[in-house]
Amino acid sequence: MRRLSSALFLLGLGLLIAAIFKGMEFGTVAPIAGQLINSAAAEQVGAANFVTSVVLGYRGFDTLLELTILFTAATAGGLVLGKRAPNAKRDPDAGFILQAGADLLFPLLVVVGVYIILHGHLTPGGGFQGGVILASAFFIPMLARPGTPMSHTAVSTIEGLAGACFIFIGLLAMFDGEAFLTPLMDKGELGALLSAGSLPLLYLAVGLKVGSELAGLLAHLSESEAVD
Amino acid sequence: MEWLVLVIVVVMLSSAVAVLLLKDFLAALAAFSVVSLGLSVLFVILRAPDVAMTEAAIGAGLSSLLFALALRRLGLWRNRGQ
Questions:
Q1: In the predicted model, is pLDDT for residue B80 greater than 70?
Q2: Which of A22, A46, A119, B32 has CB atoms 3.0–4.6 Å from A187's, for a disulfide?
């Protein structure tokens, strides 16, 4: 009975998706909201990457809530993992090849992550993607040397400061009489590194927050006792 | 371009089925990240590089890492001959 109902459900879902895609050519979308933003974003926000102007300019509040969701998820993960037993033994350090590879990869990944965060308003990428790359960059040394754990205080300090900065920049706009998270400052020349007003600062805050949060979660997970 | 999309979709579907069938958890995890990688290539073909980067970084990179660490925590990461 259960199998029959799941088969029926799958059939219905497949028919629904097929009906939606029947009227759509591959790679084309219904041009409703996109055209409006494409024509207005460069002038209104000043970011060469229109996705960024939507993420931080037109829909900045959504991004703040996304950060909140991520924070809640990471906190819940930490709660579930709980505290490490004080006498639990740590994993031994990795071999020479992994340690040398980690030393080589770490600076490269940090540069890539910072580049993606700082150029979020110009090229594809931004705070979330760069933050994830930063988190994996800081996880690599932990993988090579589990004996020397990362400082959780530093990570949570960076995370809290970055989140506070994001909200503070949003509040600054309210002091000017604008709505919360309205882009501030001079828009500058389209495509220059220092352009789009406060969007690069917001993306820097997002990148630092996402990076430190995920690095903390990965560290917490890798420091918990393994079951053999 | 159509044939490239077809190849990617076939690879994605077969690795998604492999996730269900593989007995070794780490191998299933690798197959799972292949699905995300194929999806990120599809996003590039559909001219959505932002989403492609997110999918590659989070779907293929970070979530596989999280799953691998969770397997280690649960003691399921060794192949026990079954």
A1: no
A2: A46
Chain A positions in Cβ-Cβ contact with residue B45 (cut-off 8 Å): 27
Residue B35 lies in domain: 22-74
Q: Does residue B37 lie in a domain region? A: yes
Average pLDDT over every residue of A123-147: 88
Identity of the residue in A51, A124, A226 whose CB atom sits nearest the CB atom of B72: A226
ipTM reported for the complex surpasses 0.85 = no
Q: B73 vs A227: CB contact, 8 Å cut-off? A: yes
> Does the residue B80 lie in any domain?
no
Q: Would you say residue B43 lies in a domain? A: yes
Phi-psi region of A26 (alpha: psi -120 to 50; beta: other; left: phi over 0): beta
Q: Is the pLDDT of residue A112 over 70?
A: yes
Average pLDDT, chain B: 88
Structure tokens at A65: 């809530």
pLDDT given at position A228: 62
Say if the Cβ atoms of A221 and B50 lie within 8 Å. no
Amino acid, res. A45: V
Query: Mind telling me how many Å the CA of B1 is from chain A's nearest CA?
Result: 11
How many separate domains does chain B show?
A: 1
User: How distant is the Cα of A177 from the closest Cα of chain B, in angstroms?
Assistant: 32
